[in-house]
Each structure stands twice: as structure tokens, then as C-alpha cells.
Design brief:
Helix 3 crosses helix 4 (91-116), helix 4 crosses helix 6 and helix 7 (175-185) packs antiparallel against helix 8. The longest helix has 38 residues, at 11-48. The protein has helices spanning 11-48, 52-66, 70-85, 91-116, 120-128, 133-163, 175-185, 189-221. The N and C termini lie far apart (50 Å). By secondary structure, it is mainly α.
Length: 222
């Protein structure tokens, strides 16, 4: 159909070119999610602290990152940091640091919204028990907020997995790069890109469906 030959794809091609790229995409997604949530939570707490010395830098960082295309951040970090420190850091490490820094801005907004969704009565109850701000956040507010945020955090993680394809700009070997390499070597670039799109669709649609089911269960618990 349309001159396409999808039979060129075999287990040999998958094992040689695609699987290693897929593993890197998953690894990058996990690192960026964990690092982004930790840094994003810190940024959210800074913005909600009520202290201008903390809130202003956090706000500038979050709004600044959210206003720049991810591919530009990837290129800037990959090209400028080696110039500053005087040595290359590699495409994979550069991608990991960049994704953590970039995704933290988005996770920060999710965490901030989750914290603000907790009723003021919960905060006052913690204070009435003599808890400090840190204790109140750690023991009362954040556990409830993260439960409410789980579906949104997972949705953002799926988007993050899709965005890992942008590391092609610095030559990192991800899932898309694996398909691209196989397509060039075997002279089937159209088929390779089509198969890559199918794989991304199946993975992301399946994960989105699971998140939807999880969201329904959380809604029932509430």
C-alpha cells in the first residue's frame, strides 16, 4: 500500500537499533520525572512560602522555563555548558539535566495547584497541634496533595515521554533515533517513521487509558 514495505522490520532490527533507544527514552523519562517532581516541589514551596526572597526567584524560573521551547533549552545547555566548563558532558547526561530542569517548572505548577486544593482547615488543624510549617507540609498537606495530583503527574509524565524524541537535536540515541537509524540503513525511512509513530501512539494511548481508569478510582475514593 502506497509503496510501503513494513516487512523489513524484524526482531534483529529491533534488538540492534530500537530496544536500546527505547530503554534510554524510558530511563530519561524516569530520571526527569523523579528529578522534576523533587525540584518542582521545592519551587512550589518557595512560591507558597510568602517570602519574597524565595517566591520571586522561583516565579522567574518557572515562568521563564515555561516560556521557552524545550528543544531550545536542550540545544543551549548542550552547546553552552561545555564552553563554560571547558569540556563536553555528553548528549545523554546533557539531556537528563536539561529535562529535569525544564520539567521541574511544569511539575512545580502541578504541585502548587495540588497544595492549594487542600482546604484551609487542614492547615489550621496542623497549626493547632503545634506543628511547624515544614512539619505541616510534610505530614498533613503534601500527602493529601500528592494523592490528588497523581493523575495529573502521570499525564505530564506521558507528555514527557513524548518529548524525549527531541533529544535527536543533540544526537542522543532514543527510541525515535533507533527507528531513524534502522530506516536509513535498510533504505526504508518512511516505514521506519510510520512504525515509530505507531509505537509512540500505542504506548501513550495505553498509558493515558490507565491514567483515566486510575483517575476514576481516585474520584470514587474521594
Amino acid at each position: 500500500m502506497f509503496g510501503l514495505d513494513l516487512t523489513f522490520l524484524s526482531w534483529e532490527i529491533l534488538s540492534r537499533f530500537v530496544i536500546s533507544g527505547f530503554l534510554f527514552s524510558v530511563q530519561l523519562t524516569v530520571i526527569a520525572t523523579l528529578g522534576g517532581v523533587v525540584l518542582g516541589t521545592l519551587l512550589a514551596l518557595m512560591r507558597l512560602s510568602g517570602k519574597q526572597a524565595l517566591a520571586i526567584p522561583a516565579t522567574v524560573y518557572v515562568n521563564g522555563m515555561r516560556s521557552i521551547p524545550l528543544v531550545m533549552v536542550i540545544l543551549w545547555f548542550f552547546l553552552l555548558v561545555p564552553t563554560i566548563i571547558g569540556r563536553p558532558i555528553g548528549a545523554e547526561l546533557s539531556a537528563s539535566i536539561t529535562f529535569v530542569a525544564f520539567e521541574a517548572a511544569y511539575f512545580s505548577e502541578i504541585v502548587r495547584a495540588g497544595i492549594q486544593s487542600i482546604s484551609r482547615g487542614q492547615v489550621n488543624a496542623g497549626r493547632a497541634l503545634g506543628m511547624t510549617y515544614a512539619q505541616n507540609m510534610r505530614l498533613v498537606i503534601l500527602p493529601q496533595a500528592f494523592r490528588n495530583m497523581v493523575p495529573v503527574l502521570l499525564t505530564q509524565t506521558i507528555i514527557l515521554f513524548q518529548d524525549t524524541s527531541l533529544v535527536y537535536a543533540i544526537g542522543a540515541y532514543d527510541l525515535l533515533k533507533g527507528f531513524t537509524t534502522a530506516g536509513k540503513i535498510y533504505g526504508r525511512p518512511e516505514e521506519a517513521y510510520l512504525l515509530a509513530a505507531v509505537v509512540y501512539f500505542v504506548l501513550c494511548y495505553s498509558l493515558s487509558y490507565m491514567v483515566k481508569r486510575l483517575n476514576s478510582r481516585i474520584a470514587i475514593i474521594r
